[in-house]
């Protein structure tokens, strides 16, 4: 009986932590002159993520990406996101300095905003981004 209960609990916790199949996004990142620098398809999961910034963060799974420039968004790093109402922060947040962030606002099935780097005592504006929800 205890073994069955434990197995059921593990199965249920796996379902709760699994990816949300309705949360796939295609996004584009542009430099400050409006040129496309990279694009990707991601899944905003419900799996908790570690971050040095305050708040409740969740893991981002990168399904595919294309970089048109050598210096682009850090798709190969651990990425996380959080929503605060209709505002999203997404980026490399597990380093406690040298953050790469996308900060935007949700409107319907799309998000747009700014792309920037920041750390202790410095920041650098790199451009903009747009995201739209997709079915996969």
Question: Main beta sheet: strand number and arrangement?
Answer: 8 strands, antiparallel, barrel
Sketch the topology as an H/E string, one letter per element. Answer: HEEEEEEEE
Q: How would you sum up the global shape?
A: globular
Strand order of the largest sheet: 1-2-3-4-5-6-7-8
Distance between termini? 39 Å
Which regions have little confidence, pLDDT < 50, spanning 5+ residues?
Answer: 1-18
Instruction: Give the mean pLDDT.
Output: 84
Radius of gyration: 17 Å
Q: Tally the helices.
A: 1
Structural class: mainly beta
DSSP strand tally: 8
- Share of helix, binned: 10-25%
Percent strand: over 45%
Question: Could you describe the 3D structure shown?
Answer:
- With 136 residues, the chain is mostly beta strands.
- The protein has one helix at 2-17, and strands at residues 24-31, 36-48, 58-67, 79-84, 87-92, 99-107, 110-119, 122-134.
- The chain has an eight-stranded antiparallel β-barrel.
- The relative contact order is 0.19.
- The model is unreliable at 1-18 (pLDDT under 50).
């Amino acid at each position: 009986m205890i073994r069955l209960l434990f197995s059921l609990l593990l199965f249920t916790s796996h379902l709760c932590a699994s990816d949300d199949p309705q949360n796939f996004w295609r996004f584009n990142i542009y430099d400050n002159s409006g040129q496309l620098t990279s694009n990707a398809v991601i899944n905003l999961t419900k799996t908790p993520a570690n971050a040095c910034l305050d708040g409740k963060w969740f893991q981002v799974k990168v399904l595919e990406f294309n970089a048109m420039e050598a210096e682009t968004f850090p798709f190969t790093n651990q990425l996380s996101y959080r929503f605060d109402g209709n505002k999203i922060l997404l980026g490399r947040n597990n380093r406690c300095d040298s953050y790469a962030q996308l900060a935007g606002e949700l409107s319907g099935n799309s998000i747009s905003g700014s792309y920037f780097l920041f750390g202790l005592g410095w920041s650098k504006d790199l451009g903009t981004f747009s995201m739209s929800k997709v079915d996969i």
